[in-house]
Automatic annotation (TrEMBL):
PANTHER family documented for this protein: DNA POLYMERASE I (PTHR10133), DNA POLYMERASE NU (PTHR10133:SF27)
Protein name (Swiss-Prot/TrEMBL): DNA-directed DNA polymerase family A palm domain-containing protein
Keyword flag DNA-binding: no
Superkingdom of this protein's organism: Eukaryota
Recorded GO MF terms: DNA binding; DNA-directed DNA polymerase activity
A Gene Ontology BP annotation from the UniProt entry: double-strand break repair
Region (Disordered): 34-59
Pfam families, sorted: DNA_pol_A
TM region(s), chain numbering: none
Domain DNA-directed DNA polymerase family A palm, chain residue ranges per copy: 6-105
Keywords, in A-Z order: DNA replication
Length: 105
């Protein structure tokens, strides 16, 4: 969370970035600082703001954390789809990808 707040984005394992927008002035002020030099949790900063503002920033922090896992899973799925499509085309098969269901081709 700390790194996401200070960089303003989070990354999947493959380097795809999801940029984040915070509303609270305190979290906005942290952008660009060294994540290793900051010892307080961004979640501690959220408790000092109103519920609407804190809720929005809390949601953004949750998204930052889930992006690493869910975004990486999506990247893997996309790579598998491309690889399978190329393999089917190279083999001369008349088969093709019809659809995806969750994490299955």
């Amino acid at each position: 969370r700390r790194i996401a707040v200070m960089r303003g984005y989070t990354e999947t394992h493959f380097g795809r970035r999801r940029f984040l927008t915070f509303e609270s002035p305190r979290l906005l002020a942290l952008r660009g600082q060294d994540p290793d030099a900051y010892t307080r949790s961004p979640m501690n900063d959220l408790t000092e703001f109103g519920t609407d503002q804190g809720k929005n920033d809390s949601d953004t922090l949750r998204q930052a954390c889930s992006t690493r896992a869910q975004g990486t899973g999506a990247d893997i799925m996309k790579r598998a789809m491309v690889a399978l499509s190329r393999e089917l085309a190279a083999s001369g098969s008349n088969s093709h990808i019809l659809l995806t269901v969750h994490d299955e081709l």
